[in-house]
Amino acid sequence: MSKDEWKREANVVAQRFDKSQLKGVFFKHVMIGESEKVLVERNYELHEVLGPGRSKITGFTDSRFTDAIFVDVSVRKINNEIHRISTSEARELNLGFEIEFRVGDYDGFCTNCVMSRRTVTDTDIWDMFYMDLIWGAILPNVSRKTLKELKEGEELRKHAETEIERVMKKLMGKLGLELVSVKVKWIFPEKLPEPPPARETKAEERGPTVKTGTVEGKGPADFTEESRAEERGVPEKAGTEENTPGERAEVREVTTEGPERVESGEETAERLKKERLEKEVKMQLEREQEAKDMESALQAMKLRKLRKEQEGSQKEKPEKSTEGNGPGDPGQEIVKRIGELKRAKEIAEKKYYKKELSEGVFKRLMESYEKRIIELQGKLEA
After folding, report:
1. What residues contact 242, with CB distance under 8 A and at least 6 apart?
2. pLDDT digits over 175-200, tens only?
3. Is the terminal CB of the chain with fewer CB neighbours within 10 Å at N or C?
4. What proportion of the chain, given as a percentage, has pLDDT over 90?
């Protein structure tokens, strides 16, 4: 940031700058626009909020802040679509969204939206909540209905839109954002497809049949071995009494045990399409979790790097041979470092309970902090 004014692209909502990137040596100066705020952070925790105008942030030797986040607080708009939403009969439609929002809760925005990101765009915000929107509102209110019900039922669509707005407001609130308005556009296929015709089951698909009946003028005792063989499916002998024209009664077919119903080509295609969509949703959730874990790991690395830099700068300072608890007292420095580590532990625990850190990353951080605290406490007691 060469100047004290924030130059940003149109789709950028917020941008983070380190202390070293701000203009000034002993004091940091920033020029804040009418629709902007500057969120001053200390180790990823909100320290101060600055409003429009020219402001001075003390720096250089001041440890009260490490970063400054420039935020656009005007009403912003997101236009996006969710494609190929399956209905209950495995047909598809699209939903378009026109969303207006603004940053409302600065603390929540820093903690849950910006986190350790350098830049936050409109696309980033959409990616943060749209999967939860699908699971929380679209699947229960759209995917469980038929395409015809949704197209002809105005009340169903209004109810679905109300639920979408309610869930979206809740999800954006967790990110420190305020939902101003949302418009839902229903995009149906140009021609409403007819349901597949009922498929008749042919006799050969129902399995083997047994022919039964009676012969005119004969009782059960008059049936011969040939007639019994015919019932078992054995070919009839030529010239037998059963083959004589006019003597056989009406014949009917009885289904015994047939195979399972065979899927048609259309049903197989719909089933495979549904499985593919479920797999894509699962992969997207896994990718988002991996991204969160990576950000958490990068944040932890940055905290460790900052701590090492502070320790290095303290070692370079000449030790003063003063008595008591003065600035050069090694005991006071150790106590200060122990306090910083405990504070880092609290930050990590807070992020773990908010599910921003995976269990593996959280355990490694806790072990590292505990080990360092024990080492410092040993030095202090010695």
Report:
1. 215, 226, 227, 230, 236, 248
2. 999 999 999 999 999 876 565 555 55
3. C
4. 27
Q: Where are the domains of the chain?
A: 12-72, 76-187, 207-254, 290-311+329-382
Q: Which two tokens stand for residue 67?
A: 């970063």
Q: Contact, 60 vs 54, CB < 8 A?
A: no
| CA neighbor of 102 nearest in space, from 127, 124, 131, 122 | 122
pLDDT for 197 equals: 55
CA nearest to 77, candidates 94, 109, 112, 102: 102
Quick one: pLDDT band at residue 315, thresholds 50, 70, 90?
A: low
Each residue of 136-150: b (16+ CB within 10 Å) or e? bbbeebbeebebbeb
- Has domain 76-187 been given CATH number 3.10.20.90? no
For the ranges 19-28, 86-95, 249-258, the one whose mean pLDDT is highest: 86-95
**Residue 255 scores a pLDDT above 50:** no
